[in-house]
Fold this sequence. Notes:
The protein is an alpha+beta fold. The chain is 20% helix and 37% strand.
Amino acid sequence: MRSWILAVLALFMTTGSLLSAPVRIKDLVEFDGVRGNDLVGYGLVVGLNGTGDGIRNAPFTEEIMSNILERLGVNVSGEQFRPKNVAAVFVTGTLPPFARAGSRIDVTVSAIGDAKSLVGGTLILTPLNAADGQIYAVAQGTVIAGGIAAEGEGASIVQGVPTSGVIPAGARVEREIEFDFTTLRSVRLALRTPDFTTAGRIESAINGHYGNVVARMLDAGTVIVDIAATRELSPAHALGRIERIMVDPQRRARVVVDQASGTIVMGEDVRISRVAVSKGNLTIRVQETPVAVQPNPFSQGDTIVLPRTSAAIEETPGNGLVEIGDGTSLSEIIAGLNALGVSSRDMIDILKSIKAAGALHAEFIVR
């Protein structure tokens, strides 16, 4: 009889751990002041093949269309519009750091009315505003939608999201964000995943690279760099050198499971203490077989139904009881289960039980 317990025990005897590979500092931190800014605008997509907004259901589409035509010198006061090839949309994008006037950025276009599809549409000149209300870019171009929709008299079908699309390099930057990077005396490095050990290693790596005290750890998520102590030509030169320094990051032990897809992701530092695991299948069968009882001939009795219930509990031969030793790597357990074809659902149930027993030493996240 095939037993996954034996395979797991065999893997336990070949315990080993993989060393994490060093990564660049630029992949671990964000530089203070070097960040993007979100942009948003309200515009109109035209040229749709009868899949635009219904004007009665989306009156704002008629309003913006009238404003655009009047700006182009077309007087439409008092006119009634009933086109089906236009759609009101929100346009969003991100202004990257150090973006200069004339450069282009990608934008996303999303319908806000009852349009059925934006496929084949063209976005009309749309200003994009930042949080301060100023216009920083202008978007225009052909929308590339990733979905398709079709309908007939009695049925319809939709694949993907045809009411949302992108315009690669569809916006041109018109205003630059003023930021004098050359005047910085110090720069803070913000860790994407705060950790005291990783911050300390970044501090040591930078100081070791320059041979003097250049960086100082402030907390688990911040390391400050003295630009003057680096003796570089400018802050840009200093950060260009610092971001290429390699560091071995320290991560928290974490297990993430996705019950919908049966996916299990874990770190290499996950460990399991001594615990006993037993796995078996329990089947409960309950069957109703009612019996009808007829009265005697020529009697005045009534027909009655007597309940008849049969219940049984069956337990298939279990996989036995196994004791897992201290320091066992969770990756070894998963590898053993995978080798014997144990389903992801069963793996997740086993991991939940081990965590509930207090033997799984890691942050357990269930999505």
